[in-house]
Specification:
It contains no helices and eleven strands. The chain is an all-beta fold. A hairpin with a 5-residue loop joins β5 and β6.
């Protein structure tokens, strides 16, 4: 069973920073693309940042220059460094990954984490 577990969310003042982590565990062979999404109540989940298996990254326009996605393949962990946070960044942040597992290779499977709350006060 594969699990993605996010951590690092919390309450921060505007202008502050947080670092989210997403740890993948289970019968994982390798992670391909991994990304962060966020969702406000009553709204659709939106892409924040995503990194392909080849290392290419893309960011939502609203976070460019403030957020950075990175990964540690040896630890099957991804990070989202969030700087200069704004109240409009307040949301539940979710980790998402395309990965290969021992049971399902060669097929890629997509997984979501349970989410972590980020609240930015003004």
């Amino acid at each position: 069973q594969v699990q993605l577990v996010e951590s690092g969310g919390g309450l921060v003042q505007a202008g502050g920073s947080l670092r989210l982590s997403c740890a993948a565990s289970g019968s994982i062979v390798s992670i391909n693309a991994i990304g962060w999404y966020r969702q406000l109540p009553g709204k659709q989940r939106e892409l924040v940042a995503r990194q392909t298996g080849g290392g290419s990254t893309n960011y939502a326009d609203s976070v460019k220059g403030r957020f950075t996605i990175s990964r540690d393949n040896a630890k099957n962990t991804a990070y989202l460094q969030m700087n200069s946070l704004k109240p409009e960044d307040t949301a539940v942040y979710y980790c998402n990954a395309d990965l290969w597992t021992i049971r399902t290779m060669p097929a890629l499977n997509n997984y979501w984490g349970q989410g972590t709350q980020v609240t930015v006060s003004s």
